[in-house]
Specification:
Elements: H1 8-23, E1 27-35, E2 47-54, H2 57-74
Antiparallel strand pairs: 1-2
Protein name: (rape) hypothetical protein
Organism: Brassica napus (Rape)
């Protein structure tokens, strides 16, 4: 998702979903602040640059789980 504009509640939901994967070291986040107003107010915009790096094991585990569920359903 590139160039998205998120309100704080949307960002909190997104962050809550990623947090367990960050703790398990399956996802790494890197970010930096690109710009802010000199005097920051409650409704001012802050421009952040965030990169999300996903470990391939996240996809392998999902594929194995899907295959296991599929073979159980066939039996």
């Amino acid at each position: 998702m590139s160039g998205g504009s998120w309100a704080v509640p949307s960002f909190q939901i997104w962050a809550r979903c990623l947090l367990p994967h960050v703790r398990d070291k399956k996802v790494r986040l890197e970010g930096r602040c690109k710009s802010t107003p000199e005097a920051l107010g409650i409704t001012d915009m802050i421009l952040l640059s965030v990169s999300v790096y996903i470990n391939s094991s996240i996809f392998q585990k999902h594929s194995m789980t899907s295959l296991r569920v599929a073979s159980t359903a066939d039996e």
